[in-house]
Amino acid sequence: MDIPGLSMALAQTKVQSDFSVAMLSKAMDLGETLGDGMVEMLDAAAMERSVTPYIGGNIDITV
Fold first, then answer.
1. Which of 21, 42, 46, 59 is 20 to 30 A from 6 via CA?
2. Strand, helix or coil at 15?
3. How far apart are CA 30 and CA 56, in angstroms?
4. What is the pLDDT of residues 10-55, one digit of tens each?
5. Cα distance between residue 55 and residue 3, in whole Å
6. Distance of alpha carbon 54 from alpha carbon 46, whole angstroms
7. Cα–Cα distance measured from residue 51 to residue 44, given in angstroms and rounded to the nearest whole number
8. Distance between CA 28 and CA 11 in Å, rounded?
């Protein structure tokens, strides 16, 4: 049995697993930040419509 080789393989697997978890955590944080930004933009658009509700309600077309 190759104990040192097995130990190194297990350590490498743990490092890879820890790295994957850290990257997934960063991706989730980024997704949450982008989602919060989109909510803020939608809230700003809703506020714009409430202040000027007549904008975009009619289209004038001449043929």
1. 21
2. helix
3. 33
4. 999 999 999 999 999 999 999 999 999 998 888 887 777 776 667 7
5. 74
6. 13
7. 11
8. 26
